[in-house]
Amino acid sequence: MEFRTVVKIQKSAFQIEPLEPILFVGSCFADNIGQRFREEHFPVTVNPYGVMYNPASILHSVQRICASTHIALSESILPRVVFFTLGTNRVYRLKETGEIVDNCQKRPHHLFQEEELTIPQCVDYLAQAVDELHLHRPDVQVVLTVSPIRYAKYGFHGSQLSKATLLLAVNQLVCERPNVTYFPAYEIVLDELRDYRFYQPDMIHPSGQSVEYIWQKLVDACFSERAKQFLDDWAPVKRALNHRPFDSESDAYVQFINDTHEKEKQVLYKYINKV
Which residues contact residue 130 at a Cβ distance below 8 angstroms, ignoring those fewer than 6 apart? Predict the structure, then answer.
């Protein structure tokens, strides 16, 4: 007997390779998943221009990334794999200029007009972002996710309507673009991890345990077999590097850490130039 619903995820059409550079743009949930990649020694770039919650702001960030020659991306080229994490369809427009701003910078609320993007508008902004990436990297693969973090300030019904708008826009784009896929982080949290024990004390943000579960699902769906083997090889080295000794200056610990760094070099050498 099964006592929970399980979100079934198909293998992605592309596969993430060991130590492959990856770009994350989007809500604070992108920060969480990006950090997990960092812990596994992947050279990731996460929200270089700040957290972006809505499709318009994600487009703005992508445009700046593609236009900039100073962004700290691996080998100064756009990564093949890019994640967009959508948080809301709500935007703030500066009344004086009519432009959608990415950050209100703590300016008075009366200077802005709050709006909700429609499904077609969300599709258009995301499609522009995908096209911009494709122009600079023809083999780019874009993974869309919808953040499972609810926005209490809109009211939970309003938050659900916002997420529904994003989900419908994402589905349309996935159907139209062969280089765009969807990863169901939203459904995993709300359907599989619906118990409040999988949330932080605010009962809104997913806990570290939830993020780890989503990470494992992402590995299963998007990682190549070689990338999974890298994770297995890297795991004991990571544990050793995270070890906190009683005496960090003892001869035994110095030898231990030297041996660990040597193992680290061996593991990275095995994979780093063979992506």
Answer: 140, 142, 173, 177, 179, 180
